[in-house]
Design a protein that fits this description.
The structure is a homodimer.
Chain A (H helix, E strand, L loop, with lengths): L2 H14 L12 H8 L3 H13 L22 H5 L1 H7 L4 E12 L2 H6 L7 E11 L2 E11 H4 L12 H7 L6 E10 L2 H7 L6 E10 L5 E9 L4 E8 L6 E5 L3
Antiparallel strand pairs in A: 1-2, 2-3, 3-6, 4-5, 5-6
Chain A binds a DNA duplex (30 and 30 nucleotides) through α3.
Chain lengths: ~250, ~250
DNA sequence: GGTCCACACTTGTCATGACAAGAACGATGA
DNA sequence: TCATCGTTCTTGTCATGACAAGTGTGGACC
């Protein structure tokens, strides 16, 4: 493991253990250099990493201080529709309409950084809350992961919990949110008129090695689901706004 | 502006302009060093920035390639449409269609925790990027802040920069994102058909004392703007997913 | 006591140099 | 033709040194 990662890991451990409490000053760069007998480069890289993770603050002239010691649990909430709904006290449901192994389309191949035509496993699921259609999920898994799905009853419980047991970890995900008009299939399965606006979340999740594991196109009824973001000037923002030319 | 920012800005511009298309190789570090007559440090910092923004890929031994020609900007510039667009190397524009002082409606009063009928200042603005209508902004300010707007040429520059100079700080904001169908006014000003899906962001920003300062209903053309969130198990995501009964 | 300012300290930026690790590519041999 | 192996190029990591820019503090001065 590179030096800067060891420094970052050590700082994370000291912060998580409470040895460095929230508000405490983080050792200065020169102190860390002396402690690790290192130059500033790896020390700064470690601090930059922690800053990107939102664990420490600081800036030019301002010594770094601990901002957070807790690591987030809401990550799983983003992936798992089931646990999210259950956490709200509602009853999640699902109807798996299709599970298929087929060659990757251009769009999917690009999202998963595969070659076009590589076999993937695709899932089409209708998600319900309290029995009412809420979301339509078109998920694509890379083949090694998708293979596991054929041994799983997709309507029985949480898919991601099952994949986690099988050793599939999703560590980082990118969500892109926009709006689309409902097509015939959307209309039928979400019980909305054709052309009505839907809230779309396209999600790409990567495994521990940083390689994409799944890509999903989820369409929500906007009268039932919305996304919200709360942020402050202090907290590290996790929200981005993209503009694309058409 | 530091050298690494200039390098990053130049690369962003070249990518956004199409000079470097998606899939094209980004100039190697050594080439950039020669081009800018700089050492590797600022060049690498610029590339690291673009990589964090998702614009380029690459890795050890793998030359960087352009991944997206769209840019993601962190949340600091999220409130300000102008500075966001400018950071992308595009030309922001705006047309203030209406500025009015009127009693608060129920919806607005609720969002700003005012009593219904309390005077507020409302702004209706068409926002443009490179001259093309991109967003329609219906913003409501509480009266003490809104009063300042009558002394400001809303089409001249950044509204939030002006308010910041006047001592108005927005420290915390809550954003709610969903999809709506375009009504007649949306259709006219965004140049889309009536009923076509729009991406809506409803924003409530609070000042240092925690009291609401502004409430805004912004409607984006989904073919031009989307929101994206990147999260990991380490970093603290600031995104929530809400469900509401209808 | 209050104000202002110089100074120490911190982090940000950048140059230079070096080596390691991984990937791409062409040559080589089967 | 295809697999294999090195060469070479690229990026990752780290040391050393230097200066700039911002912050905070303590002391001098009013």
């Amino acid at each position: 493991m590179p030096l800067h990662e060891r420094i970052a890991a050590d700082l994370r451990r000291r912060i998580a253990s409470g040895e460095l409490a929230v508000g405490d000053p983080v050792p200065s760069e020169s102190q860390l250099c002396a402690q690790w007998n290192a130059s500033r480069a790896p020390v700064r890289q470690a601090l930059t990493t922690l800053r990107a993770e939102g664990m420490i603050g600081g800036g030019r002239g301002k010594p770094a201080v601990v901002r957070r010691h807790t690591l987030s649990q809401p990550f799983e909430t983003f992936l798992s529709f089931s646990s999210w709904a259950a956490g709200l006290g509602h009853v999640p449901g699902q109807r798996t309409l299709e599970i298929a192994r087929r060659p990757a389309s251009v769009e999917v191949a690009d999202a998963l950084t595969l070659d076009e035509g590589t076999p993937v496993v695709q899932l089409l699921r209708q998600r319900l809350i309290d029995g009412r259609p809420t979301m339509l999920e078109r998920t694509t898994f890379v083949e090694p992961v998708g293979r596991l799905l054929f041994d799983f009853d997709c309507d029985s419980g949480s898919l991601y919990a099952y994949l986690g047991e099988q050793g599939v970890d999703m560590t980082v995900a990118r969500h892109q949110i926009d709006a689309v008009a409902a097509d015939e299939k959307d209309s039928e399965l979400l019980e909305v008129p054709v052309g009505s606006p839907l809230l779309r979340e396209r999600r790409r999740a990567c495994g521990v090695d940083g390689r994409p594991v799944e890509y999903s196109d989820d369409r929500y009824r906007p009268d039932m689901v919305s996304f919200s973001i709360e942020n402050s000037q202090q907290a590290h923002p996790a929200l981005l706004r993209d503009w694309r030319a058409s």
